[in-house]
Amino acid sequence: MPAWLLTKECRIRSADPRFMKYVKRYYQALLPKIVPHLVTHDGNVLMVQVENEYGSYGEEKAYLRQVKKYLEEGGIDLPLFTSDGPWQATLRAGSLIDDDVFTTGNFGSKAKENFADMAQFFEAHGKKWPLMCMEFWDGWFNRWKEPIIKRDPEELADAVKEALQIGSINLYMFHGGTNFGFMNGCSARGTIDLPQVTSYDYDAPLDEQGNPTEKYFALKRIDGRKFSRNAANGTMDKRNNRQKRNQLERKSQLFRNTGYHRRVDPLDLSSNNGRIGSEYWVPIVSNNDQKRCGQ
Q1: According to the lineage, what is the superkingdom (predicted)?
Q2: pLDDT (tens digit, 9 = 90+) per residue, 181-198?
Q3: Interior angle at CA 22, CA 16 and CA 28, nearest 5
Q4: Beta strand 168-172 with 132-137: parallel, antiparallel or unpaired?
Q5: What crossing angle do the helices spanning 61-73 and 17-34 adopt, rounded to 10°?
Q6: Which of 148, 181, 193, 217 is deepest in the core (most CB within 10 A)?
Q7: Using the 8-state DSSP alphabet, how is residue 210 labeled?
Q8: Is the distance from CB of 201 to CB of 207 less than 8 angstroms?
């Protein structure tokens, strides 16, 4: 949220018309750039988020519905979702579950307990939806004058394995980055706002420079599968190809259950001279990279 917005006479993240006019103006500039990249336009954007962790801030459904309306009016014809802490209070405050907006959670451990809370929330609202952690925290951001936060790679791998046995996850972050200028922001500690450092390395599987870390290889070892020798040339053996396709078929149930589904087979190597299409990629790590990371 831009700092200049705080100088305006309006209540942010609310249905206040003085605030919503800025939201609408922003979407009118942003959405025409996004719509051509939706999967419904042969792009690679699968879902669009209405709000992020709003349940930890407010509970004004009129505001959430207005944001949803602006997205739909702007041409977003994909499944919409919200994402909140997986507790009853935050899910109740931050979701639009009664409007059939897909509800997801954010957490980084204790998947069994957190997914159970989400399942209970779904059941209370008569939903048989898949369980999705939209932000599975594999590291953390850092504040000035505080120790750099690290997470043990093997402990993370165990936590991810537990989560994947129950539901689906997005790793947050998979690739570290940099917040330039004053985009680093701050986070609250009690009543004090503490500024975050410029680096958003996050102790992610790929670090701020894009290098694979020990976490990357620990996560890659979870199911024991490895790319075949031919992977470096852009092809995979047929057995791995079938396994990946079967996984995609199972995961696609997510979109069937939310009312949107389009079969996409990125592993059909019969075209494009046997190479994976440009919309899809497979991370190939050289032996030198593995040695550099101590593998």
Answers
A1: Bacteria
A2: 888 888 877 788 889 999
A3: 130
A4: parallel
A5: 30
A6: 217
A7: S
A8: yes
Q: Among 159, 52, 157, 170, which Cα is nearest to 113's?
A: 159
Q: Which residue has the tokens 């494009």?
A: 272
Contact predicate 82/136, CB 8 Å: no
Q: How far apart, in Å, do the first and last CA atoms of the chain sit?
A: 41
Considering only residues 223 and 260, tell me which one the structure prediction assigns the higher pLDDT.
223
Longest pairwise C-alpha distance within the chain: 62
Question: How does DSSP classify residue 271?
Answer: S
Say how far apart CA 283 and CA 294 lie, in whole Å.
18
pLDDT tens digits for range 71-112:
999 999 999 999 999 999 999 999 999 999 999 999 999 999
State yes or no: is 9 an active-site residue.
Answer: no
Rounded Cα distance between 64 and 54, Å, is 9
Supply φ then ψ for residue 256, to 5 degrees.
Answer: -65, -40
Q: What pLDDT is attached to residue 194?
A: 87
- Is 249 an active-site residue? no
Evaluate the CA torsion angle 20, 21, 22, 27 in order and state its sign.
Answer: positive
Residue-wise pLDDT tens digits, 17-49: 999 999 999 999 999 999 999 999 999 999 999
**Contact assessment for residue 123 and residue 88, using Cβ atoms and an 8 Å cutoff:** no
Please give the distance of CA 87 from its chain centroid, rounded to a whole number: 18
Q: What is the DSSP string of 9-63?
A: SS-TTS--HHHHHHHHHHHHHHHHHHGGGBGGGTSSB--EEEEESGGGT---HHH
Asked which of 12-16, 137-141, 222-226, 235-239 is least confident by mean pLDDT, the reply is 235-239
117: tokens are 């809370």
| Active-site position among 53, 59, 208, 214 | 53
